[in-house]
Fold this sequence. Notes:
Layout lengths: L6 H8 L2 H10 L4 E2 H8 L3 H13 L3 E6 L2 E6 L5 H8 L2 H24 L1
Antiparallel strand pairs: 1-3, 2-3
Helix pairs in contact: 3-4
Amino acid sequence: xxxxxxxxxxxNAIAEPQRREILALLRAGEWPVTDLARELGMTQPGAxxxxxxxxxxxxxxxxxxxKQRLYGLDARGLRPVHEWVGGFERFWNESFDRLDTYVQxxxxxxxxx
Length: 113
């Protein structure tokens, strides 16, 4: 049964560390599966399996180039992840503001001593 391309599938796909490594390599450009497998120290069938999962959730695209198939990153598929992580921006900004205030108060106290 084919996997549905839902938002949760993107999260599931990138939960696997080797898939994240593949995406990191594909940021630099297109790779044939044999080179990806060699770079990551895995078998070609293993790399192909991970690439298939990444394709199914829309994170990787493939195109033919002569006898090779080149895999490339389709970063549009990461939008749900980016939007979810971005929801924590306010939390982090407020935390950094409180830390900055604490450090400034600490400096002021030490200068007055």
